[in-house]
Structures are given as C-alpha cells and as structure tokens.
C-alpha cells in the first residue's frame, strides 16, 4: 500500500529527497502548523511535508510558548530546510490566536493549516490542490482525510459531499443552511487550501475580543463561519490527502477531562455568542445559531452537567438568544430549559459551599 509506505517513512523520519531546500520570497503555499509542547510530533509532520513532490512552499511553525524541546527541534531542522519559518509567541495565547498569528505571518498565495500530530499522506496532494485552485480560480479547495488512532487503523470519512465548484451566494447557503449545520469536514480548518488574502480579510473582520479568548475548542468554527461568507468560491475533491489522528493528548482528547470541563463549556458559549453577533437579524440567519445551540446540547450534554463555575457568562449568552425576537417561541422554550438546568447546578454548588 503506497500510502502505508509514505506514512511509515514520515513517522520514521525518512527524508526521501535530501537536497537542500531553498526558500522563495513568494511561495505558492504556506503550510501553517500551530504547536505547543509537541516535540514528539515535529519530525514526522515535517517529513510528510518535505516528502511532497510540490516544493514551492514555506513551512510556518507558530509556537505558543512551548517549554519542551519543540522550538529547539524546529531550529535544528531549519538548518536542513530554508523554507522552515519559526514564529514564537512571547506568552501562551491559546490555539486560536496562535493559529491566526501563524497565518498572518505567512507569505504564500494560499495557506494550508495542519495540526502537528497530523500527516500529509499522498506525495502529490499539494500539487493536486494547488493546480485545482489555479485552474478553476478557487478560494478554498478541500480534500478528504483518513481518521484513525494510529497509522495502521484508518477509516475513511467520505460524507457524500457535493462535487464541482460552488460560488456565492450558494456557498454560504450550502455550508450553513443546506444541511442545517456544517458538514463534518467543514467545521475544521485543516484539510483546506485557503487563498491567503481571503483568510486575512476574514481575520480582519473578527473582533479581537474573540481572537484573544484563548480558545482551544470551536476555534476552527469561529474562523470558518466568517471565511465561508468571505470566500467567493469553493471546491471539494475526493482525494484523501492527510491523516487526522485521534490521540488522547490532543485538544479533542482532553476536553472531557475533569479539569478541562469548565474551559470546554466556556469555549462553547464564546462560539455561540460569536455566531449570534456575526449573523444578520433574519430568520434565515438566526436559525443556524439555534441549530448549533441544540447541537452543542446534544454533543456535550454530559459535560454541561459537570460545570462548576462561569455561570454568569453562560447566562449572558443564553439571554442573547432568549431576548431575540426573531427566534421561534418553541426554540426559546428549549433554551430557557437549558438556562434553568444551569441555574439548578449553580444553586446546588452554592448550597454545598455554604
């Protein structure tokens, strides 16, 4: 299996082409990798990029003030590859801010975001997505991913996605309203080649309050909610070009742990506040907010019941929805019930503390 051999080489640190890589002043693609204490993953994600047939790239590592050997390793690899750029945060700013800053520092015509524990798995995937973008003048090209716990236990995630270019205004409708919610592969920023000027326009339109919230959950959705409105064109291709690893040390693996629950809940409600404030006052727009609100309730119901603080902010966000005249009465009843559940938890915690 060609993919298996490619992944084995990456994980084992094998560099298939050992020539000295030269940096371009205006690379075609910037691959942006936000990192924080990921020393064990740096080499393999780097090799998965270096082993690509498409060479006109820069590799931007944005480090969120790591205290392990992450930056030392990256600086070491810079000696073999001039295309590697290391941007260091002066303080720990969270996944969202770190990813955004890496994207803003990039110089490529397009940006591709990767997480440090993910891998590119086809040596021609960069060539494929760039040629598709240029040929069709596309702002966002999305490819598919293998999902798995490790490189020998992948499963495919093909969701019957619509193929062929999609343009505005159909693009926003397709992403947000056609299925009631973003499809599984739309709600993440990885696996997408994004025209850089569209990304910058997106970030510049987001209030710094949200970008600086130190979010580690739903941060992708916050960016994509605006990105899909700013982009003029989108293309989905069925090529499987990367592996999304499900590991216990990842953000998603940690979010249900006891000491992370309050942070997880706050991130959910920061996102719910964000989409409320960034949609127009029409039933068409507000409906997607309510749908996502309900989706969070279903997906994180066990976590909500374990929250121990931050209730004032939760009530504030819920009240935005309750005080909106456009939201249907039956939906408001559900949201009011949620508020009452939080109040009950809040009251029980308070009584036990007395």
The total beta strand count reads: 10
User: Overall mean pLDDT score?
Assistant: 86
Number of helical segments with 4 or more residues? 15
Query: Segments where pLDDT lies below 50 for 5+ residues?
Result: 151-156
H and E order:
HEHEHEHEEHEEEHEHHHEHHHHHH
Which structural category fits the helices and strands?
A: alpha/beta
Estimated radius of gyration: 21 Å
Distance between the termini: 63 Å
Descriptive notes:
- The longest helix is centred in the last third of the chain and has 25 residues, at 329-353.
- The protein is 46% helix and 16% strand.
- Residues 151-156 have low confidence and may be disordered.
- The chain is of the alpha/beta class and 354 residues long.
Helices and strands in order:
Elements: H1 2-11, E1 29-35, H2 42-50, E2 57-63, H3 70-78, E3 84-88, H4 94-105, E4 110-113, E5 119-120, H5 125-136, E6 140-148, E7 154-156, E8 166-167, H6 170-177, E9 192-195, H7 196-204, H8 208-211, H9 219-230, E10 233-245, H10 251-254, H11 261-277, H12 283-299, H13 301-304, H14 311-322, H15 329-353
Parallel strand pairs: 1-2, 1-4, 2-3, 6-10
Antiparallel strand pairs: 4-9, 5-10, 6-7, 6-9, 8-10
